[in-house]
UniProtKB/TrEMBL annotation:
<feature type="domain" description="MobA-like NTP transferase">
    <location>
        <begin position="7"/>
        <end position="168"/>
    </location>
</feature>
<protein>
    <submittedName>
        <fullName>CTP:molybdopterin cytidylyltransferase MocA</fullName>
    </submittedName>
</protein>
<dbReference type="Pfam" id="PF12804">
    <property type="entry name" value="NTP_transf_3"/>
</dbReference>
<dbReference type="GO" id="GO:0016779">
    <property type="term" value="F:nucleotidyltransferase activity"/>
</dbReference>
<keyword id="KW-0808">Transferase</keyword>
<dbReference type="InterPro" id="IPR029044">
    <property type="entry name" value="Nucleotide-diphossugar_trans"/>
</dbReference>
<keyword id="KW-0460">Magnesium</keyword>
<dbReference type="InterPro" id="IPR025877">
    <property type="entry name" value="MobA-like_NTP_Trfase"/>
</dbReference>
<keyword id="KW-0548">Nucleotidyltransferase</keyword>
Length: 201
């Protein structure tokens, strides 16, 4: 198992889902959130940023060996979750992987491939998964020297400003198809994804 922890950002409001929670949608009989955490946990320790309890997302993770981090100011956006989770990354960690919770096609092999790229490309500071056509996506690994910059971020823009500031130190690791880029934010996204998945099966 990797010594680089995975920070799973799962405190968002699912504001585009029309009143339902995208992370609680069922895939193979389990909520997307639980499924994603289990995939991540297969390759590295996991820190999950969550809305404050009580919340169904906490219940969805019952029995899993992960660090749950309630984010009091989750309404601020993604970077509140990132700041809160970073507090729980061990001081000995050389890097941390940032992973969104709504990427249903990512596999444990995909995550492991991006983690391996850290040691295979030691001259970089950021290692990022991409679609097979090179379109940048997730997950994204940040070297520990960038943690101070990540801790200053606010709002819902994610860490794109940090990536841009160090664009010459970014390694892109292609993953199969659109594994790194297909997220499910709306009911239409979910319906289309389920139809494609059923057609393949």
């Amino acid at each position: 198992m990797s010594t680089i922890p995975i920070i799973l950002l799962a405190a968002g409001r699912s504001s585009r889902m029309g009143g339902t929670d995208k992370l609680m949608q069922k895939i193979d009989g389990q909520p997307l959130l639980r499924r994603t955490v289990k995939i991540a946990r297969a390759v590295a320790p996991v820190i999950v940023a969550l809305p404050p309890a009580p919340h169904p997302r906490h219940d969805a993770l019952a029995g899993l060996d992960v660090r749950q981090v309630p984010v009091a100011d989750a309404k601020e956006g993604m970077n509140a979750s990132l700041r809160a989770a970073l507090k729980h990354v061990p001081d000995t960690a050389d890097a941390a992987m940032i992973l969104l919770a709504d990427l249903p096609d990512l596999t444990a092999d995909d995550l492991a491939k991006v983690l391996r790229s850290v040691s295979e490309n030691p001259g970089c500071l950021i290692w990022r998964g991409s679609a097979s056509d090179g379109t940048p996506g997730h997950p994204v690994v940040f070297a520990s020297c960038l943690f101070p910059q990540l801790r200053t971020l606010t709002g819902d823009s994610g860490a794109q400003s940090v990536v841009r500031a160090h664009r010459d130190k970014v390694h892109i690791e292609p993953l199969p198809g659109t594994h790194a880029t297909r997220d499910l934010d709306t009911p239409r996204d979910w319906a289309a994804w389920r139809a494609r998945r059923q057609a393949k099966n």
